[in-house]
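Review form for a predicted model. The reviewer records the input and the model, then writes brief findings.
Reviewer: anonymous (R2)
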Amino acid sequence: MSDRNEPLLVAPDWGADALAVVGLTAPEHPEVRSTAAGGNPRAVAVSTDGTRAYVVNHDGGTLSVVDLTAPEHPVLRTGFVGNGPCAVVAGLVDDQVCVAAWADGAVVVFDKEGQQQGPPLPVGSGPCALVAAPGGGARRVCVIDETDATVSVVDMNRAGAPFIAAPPVSVPVPGLTRAAAVAPGGRFAYVASRGEGTAHGQVTVLDLDADGAQSGDPVPVGAEPRALALSPAGDRLCVANYGSASVSVATVDTDSGRVGTPRTVPAGPHPVAVAFAPDDGVIHVVGQTSGVLTAIRPDTLDRVAVPVEGVPAGVVFGPGGHHSYVTDQATGRLTVVRAAPCKTGDVPAGGGSKPVNLAVSPEGTWAYVADSASDRVAVLDLGGLAPLDPINLGAGHKPWDVALAPDLGFACATSPDSSHLLVLTPAPGEQLGPGGDVKVTPVHWSSDARPHGVAVTPDSRYAVTADSGTATVSLIDPKGGEYPIEAEVVGCQEPTGATVSRDGRTLYVADFARTPEGGRGGQIAILRRKAPGEWERQDVIDAATGLLSGPHEMALSPDELRLYVANYQNGTVSVLTRDAVTAPWRHEMTVAKSQTPMKQPTGLALSPDGGTLYVSNDAGRAATVEVFNVSTNPAEHQGTIKIKTTQDPLNAGLALSPDGRYLYAVDARSSQSRNGATGTVYGLQLTEGDEMRDVATAPQWHIDRPNALVCGRDNRTLYVVNQGRKESPDTREACLAVITLKDSRLDVESAESRPLDKDDLPYAAAISDDGTLFVANYTSRTVTVLGSKVTSVPVGRPGASQPWDVAVTDDGAYAYVTDRTAAALRCVCLSDPDHDTTSLDVGRDPMGVTCAPGGLRAYVANHGDDSISVIDRSPGNGNDAPGAPEVVATWRHPRITEPESVSVSADGAWLFVTTENSGALLMLDTRTGTPRFTVPAGAKLAGSAPHPHPTAHPVYLADEAGEAVAVVDTTQLAPLDGTPLGLDVRQAVGGTATP
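Model under review:
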């Protein structure tokens, strides 16, 4: 049974005259084997190397030596000790063993194999307990002489020739109990007693280097002390006060042995045993009549209690300290108590996988895992700890992070290598789950993008990504963000044109307003976005101010200080100017073609430098684009581009690629097809001639009576507004054609159709830098806003800034983004329409960030300087919103080394930290920043995700090198199933079998 290095617990089984050897390889499922001993075994000790157990048999007066390395644990030797042996201690100098013979008033010394080393040594009357320094090689043994209330000191420093300290020492300790301990190093002994003439007990300190002389005055503790324990470091002492339902906890000066003023902690009726965990992190106390185990933190004295039932007699920690073991004196039942968080299982993520981050479903039953070694998201059943069918993202899309919308309407995975965010959506009307169909939609916003961290806002509206390539934080709207600006806000009779500021916050709508041919008329409505989805009419440019005549398409200069308006009814373009973006508009000049006036100019496009204006012209037998130099006043006509030869009037909408190299036009009437759809998109590379060619025709590329178009910021996407046909019998609904061009940018690679309002007549379009599309609707007098999937917020300069991880506060007010290069936390105000961003200085190379429940506190893992930054916002008062984020603390500790990721438990009590190339989870108390537990959980841990319910305790960890997700139960105290043994743990000791 006892394999090499197997952790063991050994204890005498009084009822069966046996030694119980408990294997703790599976600490929650102890394996028990019994070895016959002598009559009435009372105590046991284990050699320093863990290969021998020594059992004293009270009735036979013998010592049995048991081999712990052999499978059957045979008794190697049994020898006579004396009358009434009741105590034994091992781990002395040269592996000596000392046995107390109670009836003889003596102790007997043996070697490691049970050979007696000289005659018995007389001590005081009724020696009942022996204590020595832990750790092996102890030089002295303290003998508790019960009958005459003294302590004798045996010097073991000379192997084979032990002696009583000379001159003979008999230190009186009135009211002596069996509760005693010797400090590590062996200099000081601590002996508990009932005291004399007092209602309380006390602890006496003996200086063993001074032959057991008393050191200082006894220290008062509670009544009737029954058990005493020293922490493994020797710097704390705990006494179980049987008569006062408490324990006394005190600090100890390891140099002087002095005990500080004890602090009393309630522990329930009749505490009878006490033990420190091996890491000093917790004390376990059992109450004999209450059937309760109380766990106490020595530094804070925080306590928590759980019932273990029965009549607990003793408690001892297993060698690892993650479990303690309690026996029931009435039944001999052994109860395993989980004393610290521990790993409870793994969920395989697939052969060859490399899990780096994960997201747990709101009910905590399944998870998505980013597998950075493949192009898939692993799906795990957390209830059954089993992998399910993964979600394939498409070739080249290797995920780094993943996030779930709270309403399960979508999920997102980042793919830095492919510069994409992958949006995962369920079937229409469904929610995401562990199974079912999932549609994967790649979202690309820049070839330089390197999105890493991703989070979802609590309202499930946006995904928020940290993009290390472009130094931005991006808000992605997976649902498209379509909504109308109502007619009451637009305030136009006949919307016929639109243009928008680059930031998408100011919209200009041209109103034809039934202007007669050649007459003055129409207006420009100026709308301002005051909040996401909310617009207000800010101003209007009337016909007199703008010298307007049936305004149609418009264009804004790059500095947004000039506005160009095509005047359909008098063949000119009005140029308006202003001194600043907040100043009023005024007329500057009129652009006209002098020799042959333009006719019904509809479309406008302006070069990126603002110097060249393109104007569509219905020039008799040909549709043309007139080119003007507008950097001069008056403007100079520079040439003509031919769109097509036509006998019919043609009102062509225009669009120029953002890089200024390609010009496009639409014609609603040409290319009549058999199914009735009409229309053509034309294009021209401006350096390659002056005549346009066909790019897309009806009906192949979803073209149907196009009236306007715009070009996306990627220079390869055309958005074509199609009016369709409202008249019977050949009714066709309006739609938006999204055309992706080939590298030539004059040929179509693909196209898709998106529906527009079937009852409306879309007339004009504009697009902002973030890709938001605005469609002016002639019939309803509204504007349809087709929100961009991506809104990018600059938070630094590329190269000098490296946004990495992101977390969103519970109230949705802020997105916190770590910036590794800038050593900063970028705080993006999501509630502000302008997404105002502030920066907080944190530690070097900040990597992970997480938000605590409630929305006020956050934590940042500073990889470069081994620290955790604590972010907080002051709570609001009354109707006041919470304050701005600020750094309120920095936590440092020797165990916090190169932290990479952080997450926080659902109740906010624990911060979970993983560190570079480590397989251990670090758990920090969020009140103090103190690391409480280090939990071995895998090979190389990356991201973590706690169970979302405050009453649930699992935390799930991506094990990058283990091809799995590790499961850690963060329960601090939990009794598990018991095992019937019949042993008495009052005398149990831990060890490791090491042949």
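Findings: Confidence is low (pLDDT under 50) at residues 670-674.
Further findings: Helices lie at 487-490, 543-546.
Recommendation: see findings above.
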